[in-house]
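Q: Predict the bound structure with S-adenosylmethionine.
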Amino acid sequence: MAKNINSSEYTEETMLKLDIFRKCFREWYPVFLHAPHITHLFIYDMFAGSGKDAVGNYGSPLILLQEARGENKQHCKHLYNVGKPIVVFGFNEKIRNKSIELQENIKAEQSACQEHCEYSSCPFINNIHVGAYDFQELIQNEQVNNVLSNRSYGKFVLLDQYGFKQINDEVFLKLINSPKTDFIFFIASSFIRRFKTLNAVTTYFHDNSIIFDESKPKECHRTITDYFRNLIPTDKEYYLHSFTIQKGSNYYGLIFGSNHTLGMEKFLKVCWSEDPLAGESNCNIYNDYEIGSLFYNPTSSNKKQDVSNIVKSKILNKEITSNIEGLKFVLSLGCEPKLFVDIVKELIAQNIVKIDGVFNRTSSNIHRASEYHIVLK
Ligand SMILES: C[S@@+](CC[C@H](N)C(=O)[O-])C[C@H]1O[C@@H](n2cnc3c(N)ncnc32)[C@H](O)[C@@H]1O
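A: Predicted complex:
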């Protein structure tokens, strides 16, 4: 049986994971809170734990609640004044006594919050639900599925499983096919690598479609991410990015999915703030010179260089012919879109390309960027 994560102090790596959850939700929430056609927000934490670790550090459900209030309760203020969207939390923890403990922790958190609250009513008061279901049962639940498929609801789904067995192909496909749904899940990738021929693994992953490079253990989480990426239908515009967390000789990781460029822009912002070299890991996955070391290059990194080379060759081969294509392509390779703008500026300065239309430097909110075309000189 897996160790109970809440019964001791969270490790440094767990704290990093929670920090990424926090920042990811912090970026996601205001976008949907202020989206005009969204009537409800559903925030699901389906492997919620008991809420805290042994020394009182906040776990994911309390972090989500904290972030939903915002700094100085700015988001509560918005909800109080505007009255919409309706924000609903669904916290689930299979082990009953942990679920009860979570309920108590939430109650205490809510009471402490309300003690000093200037607003006469709490926007969340009747909308925090705690369950004790098995995830596989929950993900089949009709009510949950009605929420997931509703286009007027924004959904943030956090899946902090132990190990790797809960997010199978079917669950993944359900999530990527749910509209207005961004998700992030944890997966113990090096266990899959280590035990890849055992039934426990092959039951969940079709072994022959995961090929690990044994000389590059650091890349095993990326390999798992590619397994999931390959499940996405080729004609579907969808964005997936992963973040590898090394703990000793083990590699864990997070996989984030969104069907909107803005969702991925926001997640990449978080990843690049954690890993300024590659936006991908806590373990220098591309073997760059470390920040602070003698040969560190603050203007580029191996990942940025690799992606730049690919993008340049695609522009020169006319496979990328517009800024929209280029911005999305860079995003799909896990780089922030401003990299594309820098590449185009360089190619213009070198007199290699010219712009058909009006050149713009838009590198955020790229779904709203004005399109221009790139013409070879
Ligand atoms: C990695 S922990 C989650 C920790 C939590 N996110 C936190 O910040 O403290 C995974 C949790 O999922 C629960 N769990 C395990 N199997 C489950 C299942 N099939 N359905 C729902 N919960 C499950 C475990 O009891 C455990 O508390």
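A: The longest strand covers residues 239-247.
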